[in-house]
Every structure is written in structure tokens, then in C-alpha cells.
Design brief:
Strand order of the largest sheet: 1-2-6-9-4
Number of strands: 11
Largest sheet: 5 strands, antiparallel
Order of helices and strands: HEHEEEHEEEEEHEE
Radius of gyration: 18 Å
Number of helices: 4
Shape: globular
Strand content: 15-25%
Mean pLDDT: 81
């Protein structure tokens, strides 16, 4: 049973229609962000004609301790969507020989990050060596992109710390340089937190004051 268009039906009908579906268990629908449920197509692996090196399910779902996702649902947004990411900021550190920061990357959230930075790090199993969590960016995920969404897998950091993971949903975008577009400026317009980047202060992800 293919589900590529079912997600656009009323949610009750969607659940009833899954009764005989063996390849996608109903609980996978809980991985779809609530605000996205009428804005995405749910895909089965049979709907995706890509190799494992390009398949978001194959790349995002990992073994315990390896980070990534414990399980995932394969989605294709029907329209452009806003997604969020916490990164090192425009002052670095740079991550490669091309002076590329981690403003773009594989891992995103569907909601603007809130609360304590350390809580965000633990909930999303982000090791210190992977991300310093200095700035927040809001970018556009293009409609038609192929993504995987699911709960956070545990991660073991280089310092030996175990981040247990949990139910926090993360979005995996395999071809983020093609499928994600961020504004060129790093300056946050006052009162417009969803338009571009802003600094994450040590205690909170939300910048409450506005110069």
C-alpha cells in the first residue's frame, strides 16, 4: 500500500487507511511534526528510486551510540517549509579547508529552538566537537525535497560522554546544499526571529532583548 498522497486526507482517515499497511507502522506518523501533517507526502521506500548513498532513511537511522535517528519516516514537503538549526556562528570555528561553517548541515528542527542551550544539546544528542551552538538560523526547505524525520538516537562523544537521545524529532536533509536556502545576511532584524540568524546566549536560545 502506497501512502504518497494519503497524508493530505483528514488525519482520522489516514489512520484508518493504514490498518492493513505492513511496511509503515502507524506510530511512524507520530514522527511527522504536527504543523506539517497536511503539508507533506509520506513515502514508502518503494516510492524512492535512489541508491543507499542518497536514501535519507539509510543515512539517518543509525545504531545506538552513533547519533542520528532511532527510526524515521520518509517525507516529501509539498511546499517550502521553514526549518531551524543551531550552529557555530559567523566567527567560526571553520570546519574544513574551504572555510565552510556549519550553518548548513544535515540536521534541522521544524520548530524554532527554545529553552536552555544545554538542554537542547542533550535532547538532540549533539556532541561538543560537532557543534558549539552559538547562533540560531532559520532557513527554507524547498518543496519536493526528500527528507527523513524521526526521534533522536544516542551518541557517544569523543570525551566519552553518552548522550542518551530520546523522543525529540530531528529532520535529516541529505542534499542540504541543494534543498535548503538560507538568507545571506547574519544580522537579525529586530522583531523578526524567523527571518534570519540571531545569537544564542549562553543561558537561553531565545534573544529576549532587542537593541
Amino acid at each position: 500500500m502506497r501512502m504518497q498522497s494519503i497524508i493530505r486526507m483528514p488525519f482520522l482517515l489516514l489512520w484508518l487507511g493504514l490498518a492493513g499497511c505492513e511496511s509503515y507502522l502507524p506510530q511512524k506518523l507520530n514522527y511527522i511534526p504536527l504543523a506539517w501533517r497536511d503539508k507533506v507526502d509520506v513515502l514508502e521506500p518503494i516510492d524512492v528510486y535512489v541508491s543507499n548513498t542518497e536514501n535519507p532513511l539509510y543515512l539517518a537511522v543509525r545504531e545506538p551510540g552513533a547519533g542520528g535517528l532511532t527510526d524515521a519516516v520518509l517525507l516529501r514537503p509539498l511546499q517550502n517549509m521553514t526549518i531551524y538549526r543551531v550552529w557555530n556562528g559567523p566567527d567560526g570555528p571553520y570546519l574544513d579547508d574551504f572555510n565552510t561553517t556549519n550553518r548548513y548541515g544535515y540536521w534541522w528542527t521544524s520548530e524554532r529552538p527554545q529553552g536552555k542551550l544545554n538542554d537542547f544539546r542533550l535532547q538532540n544528542a549533539i556532541c561538543p566537537e560537532d557543534n558549539e551552538l552559538q547562533w540560531v538560523t532559520a532557513c527554507t526547505l524547498h518543496g519536493g525535497s526528500l527528507i527523513a524525520v524521526g526521534p533522536t538516537q544516542s551518541a557517544v562523544c569523543k570525551n566519552g560522554e553518552l548522550l542518551p537521545g530520546g523522543p525529540t524529532l530531528q529532520i535529516y536533509v541529505g542534499n542540504y546544499m541543494r534543498d535548503v536556502e538560507c538568507m545571506k545576511t547574519y544580522v537579525k532584524p529586530c522583531g523578526e526571529p524567523d527571518k534570519t540568524d540571531y545569537k544564542a546566549y549562553p543561558g537561553e536560545l531565545i534573544k529576549e532583548d532587542c537593541p
